[in-house]
Amino acid sequence: MGALKRFATILWYLIFAAGLMHIRTFLKLEPSASQTPISIFYNHSAPLIMDNATFSTLSYFQAAQETPKKGKKELAIFYNIFISPDDVNSSLAIVQEQLDYRDAHPNLADVMLYYAKIGAQNVQLPRRCDPCEELTSVKHGSELTTIQFLYEFCRDQPLSGRVIYIHDKGSFTNTPRNKKLRVTLTRGAFSEECTEMPSDNDDTEDKCDICSAQFSVVPVPHTIGNMFVADCDYIVKLMPPAKYIKAKEALAIKFWNSTWESLGLPPYPNLDKKQEQLYRKGSMGIGRFAMEHWAYSHPSVRPCDVFHEKYDYRTPPAHPRKLVAERQIAPQGNASFSDIESYHPWFRLPARLYEYRELYSQVPPNNSWVYRAYPPL
Question: How far apart are CA 325 and CA 319, in angstroms?
């Protein structure tokens, strides 16, 4: 009888303690599971997993289910850093320069910067970049390394997130031309015109999903140099980055091994002209160039840009620090086909629609800029 009484007493205390813990959690007197810092979910010693199905189970950015928000989006910066083993000091000087541009924008002072380091190992950033956090450090990689993390971030908070993507252009090929282009692209991505672009939550007509220094339709939709600001509700429409690389390669192989007519494309004379363009990785967006096509690859994309002086990879702006950011819906005249005879028909409207169908099983809406920007055959 005494043993039974002692057991009942212990059981009562356990029930009381459990009830007290529940009440304390409910009143937020102590942290609940959903308040656990996200850093415990990621094993920094584990290799970066590029298979999206597996990657999703190890998402760095574990977050509670979102509630739609109005007003400003929650910004995060994703920075792809290549540190050349042959010239560490020059690479770090570029990082310093870009961090300085970030500091020059007060609205970015408290924005978390996530960075992935590729190349030389055991190298520290040139200075503190608070708030920031290293995602991974690998000897070999590409822009996919960081863009995969960006995609995961947006997938975990598609309603309220907005991401800025930059990279240290010129760290692999450090030339005056690349420096001018890097300054132009960084200033565009960090400009308030881009970081505060109107979204679907705003009561205005000039809405866009993605913003950059300058948008181009030649040879396919992209931003020269691949730095941009994008809303997460657009990013999650895109094919996962690793999957996109495979899909673009499969599409190129299918095109190379098919006839124009067998793909259902309308007849066009002189298909033999400009064929060398079809085997340029940069033009077709395969290999490492796939990530330069990825961000603008969805048929629903609504781009805008901020610098209107026309430039390209070969001829960047002469005075990039003097450019004045002014957001406009893109494409404008500086991004249209000014010389359509310079491009193979694969880069014109019928083939662009064919690629959208192959990748996303849909075409742009009837009011899309795509139908105005690309010439018919």
Answer: 13
